[in-house]
Automatic annotation (TrEMBL), chains A, B:
Gene3D superfamilies named in the record: Amidase signature (AS) domain
Annotated binding of substrate, by residue: L192, S218, I239, G240, G241, S242
Keywords for this protein: Hydrolase
Organism: Ogataea philodendri
Family matches, as PANTHER family: AMIDASE C550.07-RELATED, AMIDASE-RELATED-RELATED
InterPro entries (alphabetical): Amidase_dom, AS_sf
Signal peptide: none
Pfam families membership: Amidase
GO molecular function terms noted in the UniProt entry: hydrolase activity
Protein name per Swiss-Prot or TrEMBL: Amidase domain-containing protein
Length: 544, 544
């Protein structure tokens, strides 16, 4: 734990919040659909780390098939009446329930309202012979701090356990209007500012590929759930990697769109009005095509009419062919990635070259400065907003909260903050110029220093947060490879670039990360979300 | 002068800057084209207030015709070889020189490079039989703080008199690439933060319709020059009305686009990185069609490839018909406009109704809060950036600088600034929602409390700055009416809404404002710049 003086913890006050915490836990427990709960005795024991194949033991082939089908297909089948929304909801509700039993990834199931909505949607198809919208009947998981109407939204803060949000977040409202059915809310860390998912309300979320590992965060509940195929598509948020890192740790797809294309209105957090580095909201999904489905449907609904802070940029159709030039960034020059990540990069590079895609080296550019700037922006108010919320309940400060709060330079003056904004914009211009000069269309890079982290140990955010600072959209995709202790041996380094590099390097113990998916990140120029997805499609096709 | 303690003034230090000031003044004087300078004895005396008709006495009919023709036509004629770029440049250089002699609106003429470029462009047409770009040969005026390569750019600060900018501002570079010829740089106030144009380098700029009046600011040199028809189109910048207010005072058109559509990169000012309320850069012009020409040409050049902070929003073709609903805001509820402005609103209303355009009342919404927020954002750093630059030369603080610096709440903490950002976004949403709910497509309102202000007396920025806070684009257009002391009598008010209202009301003395153009402002939703111009076209056609 870094040298952090915890001024907000108040054990006596915290004790007065115990009933609300227990109420929230009871609400979660009661929200599970009893029929889908697997008896404790049938569940794998704690010693079983990889639980990703467990659903095959307790679900029917039909249920397994539904939960592993892409959303685009499910929507088509539900919209034509071939499959009922009820049937699809049953399958996901069951698999999500199991996911939660094994990984503690949910904060609340929304069964009653979801089944009611599924019934209405099925009746709609029966009556009109067509779907209600492009996401007709699709069960979707939603990160907890994205408000759901008339429910408590706590953002991982105990003090918000009485915070009933009277309206759906704008994005939830839009997804509903497109036909989606929010069916489960997912876990996140205390303060939302960990790449891990643990708080004093719901507890710790685990990684389904290896339960000693973190699912990352802050959209870690989403990552764990979608990685387990308990949801086909969900909504996360990302200010320093919080969509991309969980997608990577759990082997699914995740897009952090350019900030301002998807609405964060109605997302609860400390620190509203911090806009030096903006949070972005976007999809995590089992299938890449569904990321496109989400974005095209969502932007097609003109979300800017419901949120004036969004850009009025319609979703473009973009075709990308193999004439693409991919720049590979093998490290950010600050922290060297672990061996399995480097293997992943080499694997993708080889596949791209075989497929005729041009690949060049991407020399990292001053990433230490990017980290210096962005880490100072997150808590430019000296964590005043966070400390206020933590102090209101007196809850203990989680070590990862303390670590995040120690980022940067503490409280800044407005002048200092403005100076950082200015430097940020210079970097945004420089990176754009570099991509143009180097003829690089997309940058392929790690999403994290390793395949995952042990629970409670994530610390270096750089591989994602660089792009938050630059506001360049990032897509995480699984390579199809998994960490293998035999193949991915320790890098026999004797010299390190700096203390962080040394610390991160020493976290790599091959046996610890066994079975973790190897995922990578693809980054485009700012606002080129459409191009990014099209390039991602080309690249993932090369991997098949 | 408000209770402002001037800590930066240092008469002894300032004296050491005298040679640089004299050098700048000599540079300006030397930059005038001698052939076009009217002998002092032929100029109207200081007692002649309205000098707008003077050019007819010293310019040929051909020259007058060119300088009163719209840019779109001039560009077509130069691109086809019907008119040479040299001839057009001569005409504007002459009229601009006269404007400067009468109004002190320029900071530097760029004759040598402009004539060199005109020659090249004429040769290009002769060789290739086509124009080089959509602004082929167009002489353009540029506000001084928009950098010109290898020239001093001072932003109205004495301490920047050695600040040679090595590159053109991005917008200048793009305009050049489109064929435009920057031929004169125009005056602005000390610190850029007055709605007036006076500094300790170039002095005071006057209004050509009435030389006792201010041309407004901060793009007051542009306003005065274009109002005098010494330039057909120019570039201004606007963070609180600095394009729109000068356009209004000088009876021309001015557009403050949505921030982020035109590049401010390479504009010199104190306070880079202040982004709670963003400065916007845009055109002032004699003709509305040229505002459209500027925007469509400029955005068509994909300026975002040269400035990563810009949105990648192509210029849309928008057709608007008379089915438009115009909301008339007769006051902001804080300061009641002067009688000629109210007459202008009634005049336009009548014309619109006659033409079949739907007109409704726009009830102002919490404009006092808009002013409270925006005025606190401008100098959230406690004027640290400005004071640093002022202190570096020790120059005297102009009373209007002091007034601006006294706006708001002084230095804010980052938390306080973030809280204001949050409130700003709530207002942006509220205003958008109001426009949708009220069915109002565009809001017609004043651009200033009066037709103009006496020199050195502008104080209330609200009618423009409200829209800066909301980032809703604003178009100023002349109604074709002029203040008339006989018609526009004093409003016999006995009660005032507040002290500001009383103060502003008492500034209205009918004889003082004689002959000032009556101009108004049209405002659309954020990002709807194209729609705004199309609506402006409909409305100005109704006025004919």
């Amino acid at each position: 734990m870094p040298p952090y003086i915890d001024k907000t913890t108040d054990p006596v006050k915290f004790e007065t919040w115990r009933p609300q915490i227990e109420l929230a836990q009871k609400r979660l427990k009661d929200s599970l659909v009893a029929d889908f709960v697997v008896p404790q005795s049938d569940l794998p024991g704690d010693s079983v780390l990889d639980v990703s194949t467990f659903p095959a033991k307790v679900m029917s082939p039909a249920e397994l098939k539904i939960t592993e089908t892409d959303a685009s297909t499910l929507v088509l089948e539900m919209g034509s009446g071939k499959l009922s929304a009820k049937t699809v909801l049953d399958a996901f509700m069951k698999r999500a329930t199991i996911a939660h039993q094994l990984l503690n990834c949910a904060t609340e199931f929304l069964a009653d309202e979801a089944y009611e909505r599924a019934k209405l949607l099925d009746e709609y198809v029966q009556t009109y012979g067509k779907p209600i919208g492009p996401l007709h009947g699709l069960p979707m998981s939603i990160k907890e701090h994205v408000s759901i109407k008339n429910r408590v939204t706590n953002a991982g803060f105990v003090a918000l356990l009485n915070n009933v949000t009277p309206e759906d977040a704008t994005t939830v409202s839009i997804l509903r209007s497109l036909g989606a059915i929010p069916f489960v809310r997912t876990n996140e860390p205390q303060s939302l500012m960990h790449q891990d998912s643990c708080n004093y309300i719901t507890g710790v979320t685990l990684n389904g590929f290896n339960r000693k590992l973190s699912p990352s965060g802050s959209s870690g509940g989403e990552g764990a759930l979608i990685g387990f195929k308990g949801s086909v598509m969900g909504v996360g948020t990302d200010i320093g990697g919080s969509i991309r890192s969980p997608a990577a740790f759990n082997g699914c797809y995740g897009l952090r769109p350019t900030a301002g294309r998807v609405s964060s209105r109605g997302c609860i957090s400390a620190g509203g009005g911090q806009e030096s580095v903006k949070s972005s909201i976007g999809p995590l999904a089992q299938h890449l095509s569904d990321i496109e489905l989400f974005m095209s449907s969502y932007v097609g609904a003109k979300p800017w009419l419901q949120d004036a802070t969004l850009y009025r940029i319609p979703w473009k159709k973009v075709d990308v062919d193999k004439q693409l030039t991919v720049g590979i960034m093998r490290s950010d020059g600050v922290v060297k990635p672990h061996p399995p990540i480097l293997r992943g990069l080499e694997f993708v590079e080889k596949k791209l070259i075989e497929a005729g895609v041009k690949v060049v080296e991407w020399e990292p550019y001053k990433c230490d400065e990017l980290w210096e700037i962005v880490s100072s922006m997150y808590f430019a108010d000296g964590c005043a907003a966070q400390n206020k919320l933590l102090g209101a309940s007196g809850e203990p400060i989680h070590p990862l909260t303390a670590m995040a709060f120690s980022f940067g330079k503490g409280e800044l003056t407005v002048s200092e903050n403005q100076e950082l904004n200015y430097r940020r914009d210079e970097f945004r211009n420089k990176y754009q110029q570099l991509m143009i000069e180097r003829g690089v269309d997309v940058i392929l890079c790690p999403a994290y220093v390793g395949v995952a982290a042990e629970l409670g140990t994530t610390s270096y955010w750089g591989y994602c947060s660089h792009w938050n600072l630059l506001d360049q959209p990032g897509l995480v995709f699984p390579t199809g490879l998994y960490q293998d202790p035999v193949v991915d041996k320790v890098d026999p380094r004797t010299e390190y670039w700096n203390l962080t590099d040394e610390k991160e390097s020493q976290k790599y113990v091959p046996n610890v990360f066994k079975g973790a998916p190897i995922a990578l990140q693809l980054v485009s120029q700012r606002y080129e979300d459409e191009f990014l997805l099209a390039a991602g499609k080309i690249i993932t096709e090369c991997l098949r």
